[in-house]
């Protein structure tokens, strides 16, 4: 699961080598409702060996991981049954063994509805479409009861891969994240041996600058613009792949 480490000035790093791979982006659009796959052979399509799962980290408004959050998981298109899990001390969770929630029409995927609850905090409910035997991710933010969510801030998880001009993973790559809107923002992201990176930015500026480098290649610098926060109770996921020069 993900290890969250705070860094100065409202930024956090997620260590890619310790992270689960993201199979479906946060708040992905639900799959086509009740996929029936007429004419398909569904023999063995739904079994106890199904590996569909959903994972993430639950945060409080300050960006701190929250333990002991109850999580209810149901099949959005057939909600008769539900399963329960909880966040660990690190605020991370993994809901798996979801075979009892699957129906015959879930041969290709399932719409999962997740509800996150903890006493004294506003509940968060969201639906995510997850392909069969894949991993979906949701990172909610639980706001205290009586406190209005901050709607003008951006909470973003940046992911991507740094590659060479030939499209191969860049070895020993580095990535620094800054912003022309906030000169004091400087985050040195950790990049794994495959060139993949993740960085969680809390109350981030809308425009960011990504400076990537690796031995033997020209550095690459680009500016990106984050979208406005659609929901103040969900961290948005943005993927940016970076190609280095020759």
Summarize the model shown.
Helices cover 0% and strands 36% of the residues.
Description of the molecule:
By secondary structure, this protein is mostly beta strands. The chain has two domains: 20-30 and 48-137, Protocatechuate 3,4-Dioxygenase, subunit A (Sandwich), CATH 2.60.130.10; 156-243, Carboxypeptidase-like, regulatory domain (Immunoglobulin-like, Sandwich). Helices cover 0% and strands 36% of the residues. The protein is built from no helices and 17 strands. Strands 1, 2, 10, 13, 16 and 17 form a six-stranded mixed β-sheet that branches. A four-stranded antiparallel β-sheet has the order 5-4-7-8, with no helix packed on it. A hairpin with a 6-residue loop joins strand 7 and strand 8.
Briefly, what CATH class of the largest domain?
Mainly Beta
- Can you count the helices? 0
Q: CATH superfamily of the largest domain, please?
A: Aromatic compound dioxygenase
Distance between the termini: 35 Å
CATH architecture of the largest domain: Sandwich
H and E string: EEEEEEEEEEEEEEEEE
What Rg, in angstroms, do the CA atoms define? 19 Å
- Helicity, as a percent range: under 10%
What is the overall pLDDT average?
83
Q: Quick one: how many beta strands?
A: 17
Q: Which structural class do the helices and strands define?
A: mainly beta
Structure characteristics:
0% helix, Protocatechuate 3,4-Dioxygenase, subunit A, four-stranded antiparallel sheet, globular, Immunoglobulin-like, 246 residues
